[in-house]
Amino acid sequence: MTREEFAALTNQGIVYLDGATGSNLYLAGMPRGICTEQWILEHEQVMMDLQKAYADAGSMAVYAPTFGANRASLSAQGLEGQVEELNQRLVDLSQRAVGGKVLIGGDISPTGKILVSQGGMATVDEVFEIYREQIALLAAAGVDFIAAETMLSVEETMVALDAAQSVCDLPVICTLTLEADGNALYGGNAVEAVETLGAMGASAVGVNCSVGPDQLENIISNMKRAAEVPVIAKPNAGLPYIDDHGNAVYSMGPEEFAKHMRTLVAAGASIVGGCCGTTPEYIRKMRLALEGKLI
Fold this sequence. Notes:
By secondary structure, the chain is α/β, with parallel strands linked by helices. Helices cover about 45% and strands about 15% of the residues. The chain is built from twelve helices and ten strands. The N and C termini lie far apart (about 35 Å).
């Protein structure tokens, strides 16, 4: 997919992304503290069924489950030598799941390394190379766009975007996880993100994870006023609490989530989806609400 084709898609109306991956895998029996990407490949049908359900629910794009398939994250499990294999197989899984019916995003995440400018030990060049390696593999595997999500700082997102542009011409969409006041954990804020990343060539910029849609109206509105690219809203299903079994339970049901997403679209979001706690039913209800079919 070219950047021009992505822009044309966003000009046609609201673009519907998928919902959560990790919280649904835990519900399906995935243990905590393991390599998610490896578990998925050992339980392919679980992931394929989830992505097919998102496509059936109205998602126009799903994210390949490559969130932690970068060299830095995989090294924690001793799997840094499997970067190429994991990315190729995970993209192939998504391609088989949706059968060309919807777009596939190559999902990338924070590396877990803290940049020197943020008080850590990692150099920009080191982080750039980690992203460059994974993004080149995702592009070669045939994803339609790159999705940098749950980013913790504007600076690291800039490095990821720069790395993407150095190895491919695919559209890159960027979402940060922000506090309720619009600030990122390791530097930058919502308005800075949409201005800076948009100027660098990101095809869309926005917010994912963090909080529920009921807490994002002002952030989305502020981003829209500053934006020259589409604004993304992919929030959690409200705030979670931990039940007696140690599981995160999210406070917002599908219909309530959908109604709040209608507010975020009115505030300026035009690419929408869900993050932690959401399921295909959330996407289905959200699409119905935004098409005026849910009272």
